[in-house]
Records
---
Amino acid sequence: MRIASNGDAREVETPRASGSAPGLDSSNSGRAGRAESVSELPNAVLVFRDGRSQEIRKYVIAGGSVFIPSDYWTTGSWTQKIPIADVDVPETLKRNQQRGAKFALPSNPNEVMMRP
């Protein structure tokens, strides 16, 4: 860095964080380390009343149904709609708790739950 004072120009060295490249702010380098240390969430599981189960990664729960993104080419639809009435709720909550997956149902009709 060059500082000019009364026509004098002199070089002043600014301290850098160790290991950082010139021009990089050391406060930004911590963000990348934190992003790498975040582990992926385990898949949630839905257990149906008939005993079958389905693992899901992303979902939205609204209006009494679970909406799951789907592959149009294999299922014929963009979104799968599963009524909560078809789900064995106590078993679903129990299995997700055992897996460490956070799965919760809305507490009132106007609430929407989602997992991006």
Note: Residues 44 and 80 are 15 Å apart (CA to CA).
---
Amino acid sequence: MNPKAPLRVLVVDDTVVYRKIVSDVLSKIPGVEVVGTAHNGKAALVKIASLKPDLLTLDIEMPEMNGLEVLRHLQDKKMDVGAIMLSTLTQQGGAMTMRALELGAFDFIPKPQEGSMAENLIAVKASLSPMLQAYAKGRQFRKLLRGALSHSAKRLTPGGNLDKTTGTVVRRHSPAGFRRSKSEIIAIGISTGGPNALSQMLPRIPGDIGVPIVIVQHMPPVFTNSLAKSLDTKCKVTVKEACNGDPLQPNTAYIAPGGMHMKIMAGSDGKTRVIKTTQDPPENSCRPSADYLFRSVADHYVGRATAVIMTGMGTDGNEGLKQMKRSGALVIAQDKSTCIVFGMPKEPIESGTADVVASLDRIADEIIKSVRQP
């Protein structure tokens, strides 16, 4: 893909209105070319062959061949075509969206359910424009990375073999004289690419990890519940969507509900810790916000917490991580090569806030170490 070439997009939706809305939005985004439309998955596959798009905007629920079937075909044929899903705000839509992300979809946007054409255009553009920019940037980086790995694979390391499976970990020194305790809580901030990354990382956490895990995944309502249910079937720890007033329990991961902030507070006995969900104003245009969660963990777990920042657009979490770092937390950041979007981890890594920079397949090991040894 020529970095100066436009991003070629095929719009796939069984509804004429949404094909027009999405096409109109895309046509106004610099660096994007709408190469065609299709009314269902079968028609899309024919047009993919002839139009060679880089990306699909793909409705999930369509007659004849739905969006999931299209993704399976792309995966089976190893076709280098990305997909952004258009998903309905229903329990069924949420569950299908989680499956689409597992099948390799880049991300999703919820379909506007009401409002005028003009209002829907604004809503779709607000979600789609930054997502396309992130996709194009990430696509180019991954092509460069594949080229570099292909070149490296032809050479041997001094030890005689190229290690391509164990991932990478880079450690940094904590401030001189500072001593931290074993972590008693894990706090994770994640966004674009998150469901897939979490489905790879969380199952590596043992069921007897012994501490609670609190997670902010940027998502609208309904979808976080579907994500929690999906992860719970894969993980040794219990995974649930957090509820206001939940006491923090070990060996349980709590996902902030979509559209709500989540923070940690002291229980009525002053010893236990409980979850509080709020509708305080969005931070960094996000609700839930990782910054909002991280600040509360910094306040209640001084010197006894691990923060993890993973793939995602934007900078949410950066300021909260600084506060956690000042309060003695260990900060782990996902490395650039395994992020779908290297946004949220970028500043913590470049500024030195991150103590450990690890590839996706090594993050769980680093979390376990932080809980079992200071």
Note: The chain has eleven helices and 15 strands.
